[in-house]
Amino acid sequence: MPNTCPVETPALSPNGCPISGRAAAFTPFNGPYQVDPGEALKWAREEEPVFFSPEIGYWVVTRYEDVKSVFRDNILFSPSIALEKITPAGPEAQAILQKYGFAMQRTMVNEDEPHHMERRRLLLDDFLPENLQKHESAMRTLTRRYMDRFIDRGHADLVEDIFSEIPLTIALHFLGVPEKGAEQLRGFAVAHTLNTWGRPTQEEQLEISENVGRFWQTANRVLDDMIANPNGEGWMYETVRQHFKHPDAVPESYLRSMMMAILAAAHETTSNATANAFWTLLNNRESWEELCETPSLIPSAVEECLRVAGSIVAWRRIATDDTTVGGVDIPKGGKLLIVQASANKDNRHWENADDFDIYRDNASEHMTFGYGAHQCMGKNIGRMEMRIFLEEFTRRLPHMRLVKGQVFENLPNVSFRGPSKLLVEWDPALNPEKTDPSVLDRSLSFKIGAPVREGILRRVVVRDVIDDSTGVKRFVLADPKGRKLPKFSAGAHIDLVVGDYRRKYSLCGDASDTKTFEIAILRENNGRGGSKFFHDNVAPGDVVHIAGPRNHFRLDANAPQYILIAGGIGITPILAMADRLKASGKPYHIHFCGKSRDRLPLLDRVQDRHGQSLSLHITAEGTRLDLDRALSKVGGNDRVYACGPDRLLDELESLSANWPEGTLKYELFSSANGALDSSVEHAFEVELRDSGMTVSVAADQTLYDALRASGVDMPMDCGEGLCGTCETRVIDGEIDHRDRVLSAKERAQGDRLMTCCSRARNGKLVLAL
Ligand code: HEM
Ligand code: FES
């Protein structure tokens, strides 16, 4: 993005640019940001993605890619201010804190390198998936016991009655802190939130400071007991033991600050996230009912809830040098408010970002747990608790409803978000366990960690199958209950999953038809078998599964003109793009080519809709496509989109060698990446520089699979080197690139690779993970 100043107002931001009216009016402490921070910053994502807010003195970062890149670089963007008071305490409030000896310093989340990683490595073990399993049964027993208390009552305030208490008890148990005085701790945590992230008045500050001071002293008393007898069980005991072994890496000041910070980090985040999730699901009744019917969807529903209604909506970093974020100059010392809730609603990253969709198979790419070296260590504890809550409630209280007319009341602050009350009601006579006591015995167990993408599938019914007489069949798919399907953008695809076959197909139907999806499948007799299987076995009335829609072939809306090139069945995404360009009045031209007219699928539709902007190139009719001629006028910011056979795309790639970066975008049908042959491949090691781990990749294992097995959450989509989703930065080592995403120039730079298919050429790779 060019570095341009926004619309002028008299005030200047620290980089010398005038502050726009909307930036000047932005406040995170009340108004729209408190109602829905992602929605409140929609204007910024579109018009001014990084802006300076004079109200708080922070640069506000709103787009997904920018938020992620700030999280990712914890050297240039130091986390040292993460727990700083966003509203500085007045002298009286400071005096109160001093009276209690309050001395909050660096913990984990606000520590710089190299200390942070050294500490994180020493204290990571208890958070590893294999060490978390043991907490599951305690969580479940507790959840059941709490539900028993109100299940026959017919109404509850879920925040008060269960969600604020269980995560606290679990947190105390995990940390090894005695449960005595838990009630008081809850009140203290509220004070800590307001003290750190709120805008209390001078008067409120005094009371808050008293509570924060008491919190500090209570936390320290617990810690003193642990130091005196460090053999107990729990993460804080382990931390104390590490302090004795490595006093430089885990100093006493860290113990004292962490004791207080972790009490808040471990329970409030999860209480709020759970309450937000129930609020969201009960307000989206269809999704709630679907979860009750199909509880295997719970892990993906949890991620979608964390995306649209996370409990941490913004986090903070400070620039350690002059830099730019999203094209905006940020001077050294500039403070950044990185708004995860806004990134989580960014249409540049998500299909239909505003829609709530429990089938969204990449929802775990949300920023709610942060990203990179400081990513939440307790994320899998939070996930596990939320899953158990949902599982027990959908089974025992599927008929529960939100009490009408209640408003979402949040503590006014920039980062923590969750309702102070969540009133629900139900008819106890209809509790399923009254008629079927076996409901109580059932439970599911989900694998710890982010949900496995392959398992998140939407059931659809095949409404129609139309033979196109070009070797292509068109399949029209709809929701079995006639509900709306997600909207899709031009270039998007779905995965069709039937039997053992899973294949990607571009959506080529009418984007304004919200009830059906249409895909066109060419029967490939010499392919891998999927298309033949679908042609022969999928018939109207069948129920099949799909994943998506997702889009790795996005249309840039801002080019002056577009050239669209399709070879054969490659017309499917191109048709969707042409439809969209026509609807938005943009100049475009389609070149549609094939060996003969009967090898041009969807031709009638293409001619009907786009006859004015269409050139047909048919080899049998002597009108073969001359790419040189077709592309002779490409220039400036024009965009060329292409989909077709490899031959066509290879030719295009070499023709475009001197075009400006990003002019040509193409989509491949498939890659040559098949199953790994361990007799040909070699095993190798990767060092994860940020996490301080070394991972071994076996000869028959992909790098992606090895990383996942070591607890690294990584996004992945195609798994074949086609889409770029799994791109990872490489710090050192020789790469054996096997993807079709990177250009020759990018490969030569050797600083990134696709983990789903690429490997080490020789020796070891060092990754920025
Ligand atoms: C860090 C969110 C639950 C322990 C963080 C960060 C966020 C976050 C945003 C900062 C990430 C960054 O700077 O990149 C959440 C949410 C939770 C949750 C939304 C629940 C849904 C937990 C739990 C625990 C925990 C249950 C512990 C039992 C930590 C720790 C860090 C952290 C130790 C510091 C990691 C580091 O700096 O290396 N969390 N958290 N969190 N969280 Fe969580
Ligand atoms: Fe698509 Fe790796 S997941 S390139």
TrEMBL record:
UniProt-listed InterPro entries: 2Fe-2S_ferredoxin-like_sf, 2Fe-2S_ferredoxin-type, 2Fe2S_fd_BS, Beta-grasp_dom_sf, Cyt_P450, Cyt_P450_CS, Cyt_P450_sf, FAD-bd_FR_type
One Pfam family named in its UniProt record: p450
Domain FAD-binding FR-type: start-end pairs: 455-556
Domain 2Fe-2S ferredoxin-type: 682-769
GO molecular function: 2 iron, 2 sulfur cluster binding; heme binding; iron ion binding; monooxygenase activity; oxidoreductase activity, acting on paired donors, with incorporation or reduction of molecular oxygen
Superkingdom as given in the UniProt entry: Bacteria
Family affiliation: Belongs to the cytochrome P450 family.
Protein name according to UniProt: Ferredoxin:Cytochrome P450:Oxidoreductase FAD/NAD(P)-binding:Oxidoreductase FAD-binding region
